[in-house]
Model the fold of this input.
Amino acid sequence: MNNPRQHSGRIAVVTGAASGIGLQVAQDLAQQGAMVCIVDRNGAAAEEAAQAIAQAGGRAAAFVVDLADMEAVQAMLGRLGRQFPAIDILVNNAGIVSTQPALDVGLPQWNATLAVNLTAPMVLTQHVLPGMRAKGWGRIVNVSSISGVRAGTGRLAYGTSKAALIAMTGQFAIESAEWGVTVNAIAPGFVDTPMIRTLHGSSRQSTYMDVCPMNRFCSAEEVASAVLFFASDQASFITGQTLGVDGGYLASGLFMRNLFDIPAATPARAPAA
Ligand SMILES: NC(=O)c1ccc[n+]([C@@H]2O[C@H](COP(=O)([O-])OP(=O)(O)OC[C@H]3O[C@@H](n4cnc5c(N)ncnc54)[C@H](O)[C@@H]3O)[C@@H](O)[C@H]2O)c1
Done:
């Protein structure tokens, strides 16, 4: 039976929690009782998110850091460790994306993408794992992408980083399993967040809709519910997995919306509230 306050007394760290998917995850974890550490480079938005959680009756604190800067990350982990010596839940959600032809991706772009999307999750995971092992309970959820499973035009740095994050999920999972610590990943399709609104023009958006069997974007709430499942007590025997949250995108091969004379479900059903 699902306890709606099952994370009471637990400490959660959510990166990129000042916006989009991370913000929703932070709010949901706080609602289930966790004290949430909001790790983000956007200080004003992180403070605002922490205050909104407090106003809703939850507990949260902002930790401002640029996850691309490993010295700053180490300093932030020092502050975090002094305040919260043991972390129960880590959600590696912060990510950056760009769309460039493979031959135009320069080293700065490549290095920055791998630093935020892969190296920071590795460093944060190494930081939290000893405490989780000592307690015999821990949950780590990595936010990858459909781009980490399937190649996409313009996704050299991003797709490679997200594929490596999935590989890393398995590596940490099998070396943590005996201690009751699970490590899983989710692979969302297009999610309606500030990232996607600023990144994609209407033609990439409609191309995606065409190949997404559900014919719509995912909501941040739908992604967060998958993260919350992996973070739950109920998911205790599931580790090393990657779950597509993608409206059927990864399951489909040759997908032809109009091949049969079946009335379309128009307008496409809106994301669940
Ligand atoms: N939106 C989508 O369609 C989609 C699809 C698949 C996967 N994802 C993944 O979901 C995650 C969250 O994406 P979102 O859509 O919510 O994005 P978003 O832009 O709305 O939020 C990202 C958050 O991460 C923070 N962040 C970015 N770089 C950072 C850095 N260097 N240091 C600290 N904080 C940093 C930002 O300040 C922001 O608060 C990302 O990893 C993204 O790759 C998103």
In short: Residues 16, 18-22, 40-42, 66-68, 93-97, 116, 143, 145, 188, 190-191, 193-196 surround nicotinamide-adenine-dinucleotide (CB under 6 Å). Residues 107-135 form the longest helix (29 residues). Helices lie at 20-31, 43-55, 70-83, 107-135, 156-174, 194-199, 202-211, 220-231. The first strand starts at residue 11 and ends at 15.
